Amino acid sequence: MRAVWVCLALLPVGGACAQEIAFDRPGLGFSATVLEPGQVAWEQGLPDVERDRDAGVRTTQAEAGSMLRVGLGASLELQLAGTPWRRESTRDAGGTREVAEGAGDSSVGLKWALSGGGTLDWALLARYGLANGSRELRPDTHLRSLGASVEGEAGGGRGYALFAGYQHDDDGSGWQVAPSLDVFASESGTFAGYVEAGVGGGTQAGTVAGGGLTWRPRPPVQLDLSVLRGIGGEAPDWQGGVGVSVGFR
Question: pTM of whole model > 0.90?
Answer without folding.
Answer: no
